[in-house]
Amino acid sequence: MKTIILLRHAYAERQTGKDDFYRHLSDEGVQVAGLMSHELKKQCSKIDLIVSSAALRTKETAEIFQKEAFPNTTIRLEKDLYFWQFTDRFFDFVYGLDNSTETVLFVGHNPVFSFLAQSLSGNPNLYFYPSSFLIVNFQTEQWTNINNGTVENSVFVSSKG
Questions:
Q1: Terminal alpha carbon distance of the chain
Q2: Residue 109 and residue 128: Cα distance in Å, rounded?
Q3: What is the enclosing helix (H) or strand (E) of 34?
């Protein structure tokens, strides 16, 4: 079985002329990310790899989840993840993962994460608030076989109760 977890970054500080790529998490974002990391740990005991956009707020979110819930998991920063606008770039990336990796947590941005979550969950109304996550289990042993037809089940946890 392969598992993909999509996690939208936590709440960021307001944009005040600073380049969007370099915005930090807000105090609320840090707090909510800590709480949601424990929620994810309840749902998923092991993550093999964390892949995060290199944008500062996603990197900080990934680091909170690593520290709070998955301390032995490596974070891999992917600058291109910040620029993904279409879901096909996501699948191209997933198809290139090593098959020895079973569970991957992706930390990224809207709108692409909401589109992916809607597609993978089959729920067109699903919206990714900051720090929300979707766990998708696939009935396959190879990343190249990942598609909507191989979804075994999915669990969505929203940061908005």
A1: 29
A2: 9
A3: helix 27-43
pTM here is 0.94
Q: Element (H or E) spanning 39, and its range?
A: helix 27-43
Q: Residue 98 has which token pair?
A: 């090593």
Separation CA 143–CA 72 (nearest Å): 22
Q: What is the pLDDT of residues 80-117, one digit of tens each?
A: 888 776 677 888 899 999 999 999 999 999 888 888 88
- Measured in degrees and rounded to the nearest 5, phi and psi for residue 51 equal -110, 120
Query: CB–CB of 23/161 below 8 Å?
Result: no
**2-157 belongs to which homologous superfamily?**
Phosphoglycerate mutase-like (3.40.50.1240)
pLDDT in tens, 12-37: 998 777 788 899 999 999 999 999 99
CA 122, chain centre distance (Å): 17
Domain ranges, ordered by start, for the chain: 2-157
Return the ∠ at Cα 27 (arms to 20 and 90), rounded to 5°.
45
